[in-house]
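pasting SET domain-containing protein for the record, 447 residues
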Amino acid sequence: MAKPNGKEKKGDTGLSMAPPKICEARFEAAIRAMADIGILKETAAPVLNNLLKLFDYNWVHIEADNYLALADAIFYDSDPKEGQKRQANETNLDADQCNKKLKTKQRSQNPTSKMHGNDNREFVEAPPQQGRGTLSARTVNGKKVTRAHLELPSSQLLIKEPHACPSIAEDTTIVQNNSAVLCHGDPQTLEVPMATTCPQVVAPGTRKDARRTSGSHHDQKHERNRAVACSNQEIVSSKDSPSNIEGAFLDSCISMIREPLKHPHFYCKICPNERMKMEVFLTPGKKGWGLRSTEKLPRGAFVCEYVGEILTNIELYDRTIQKTGKAKHTYPLLLDADWGTEGVLKDEEALCLDATFYGNVARFINHRCFDANIIGIPVEIETPDHHYYHLAFFTTRIIKPFEELTWDYGIDFDDVDHPVKAFKCRCGSEFCRDKAHILRSKSRARV
Ligand SMILES: C[S@@+](CC[C@H](N)C(=O)[O-])C[C@H]1O[C@@H](n2cnc3c(N)ncnc32)[C@H](O)[C@@H]1O
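structre below
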């Protein structure tokens, strides 16, 4: 008997009995669809039977996309190479469709106050993001292979990090719609050379920085390599001269798309992101909450991205002024990695992130002068506009389990002219830049 969803169970019909009318009609319709594209019934029927078994007689999968799974299975059975080419073509189509979707989504976002990263993601409790997507199954040389179309949240579109790997089941082939990826549920990462620049969390009142008129970080002459991780397999590059990806990495990207059968497994057993468990904890040193990993982390491990609302500097400044004296902790981050290279930016144009109301665990990362154990690396994803990028945190050295993760906000503690003071630094580093606070602490200790 046919189930409401078209599923037919052997037990319902009896093995020797003819399939019920509804399935017979569906069977014939599938054969007709194949005949329309020049496939003989003798070829199509046995493959269809196999496919039905694979899909547990769920016709929905077989009829989807005008019998795409069936056509593919036939192609694979008759000529695996041809089947791969066909799949590669579909892959490109899928990628285009997905990119369109992503663009539409971006356009529909609130232009004045957006989340940096995943839409609607809230801090602390937010689980690691899993890309949304669809799964379809097909037979490859008689083996069931699941194909996943992932639409990944933008905050997961990141950079190459040798350990960044997916938690994808072993029979899953990933068709990536975005090229540069990191974190859970993702198969492939990109190797992008980047130099650390100095994006900073702004202490309340680093209005001087916000105006970008001066500030120590602006004077630093970094060679600012950029990772431009665009959708659809475009990566890149150095700031002044966009370069191309080349060599083994490019070859493997092409191969993943064109020869998916060579890359059936993406399950990674060593990826630290798979095991990494972040913990927000109350620091003993009056810094408020902090962040740590319960696991040992290798050097260079991706930790997380800084997520917050995207504001202009004017908006951030207004918020800061309103909060002054009330907020104990503040959560802004200037997207200033490129400031100073194009003359003076207007405050209405310069961007920053504010994790006060929306954010992720990164908002709990405390500051440590100079010898912090993580660094923020700017990553451009949606747009090559250097004023808007994501900030990805990576470990600078091996981190012991439960060691606090710290990041050098780059605060100028000597900026005493500003009406709103930075916090008193309690980082404990021997390189602490908050000299005034150290002196005060020492004289208090003497008394
Ligand atoms: C991005 S938040 C970090 C999380 C914060 N500790 C909390 O409890 O939410 C930045 C704020 O943490 C505090 N903070 C961070 N690093 C500090 C440090 N080295 N010394 C003292 N306070 C610190 C300051 O109040 C600062 O405004």
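Residues 201, 287-289, 328-331, 363-364, 366-367, 423, 425-427 surround S-adenosylmethionine (CB under 6 Å).
The first strand starts at residue 114 and ends at 115.
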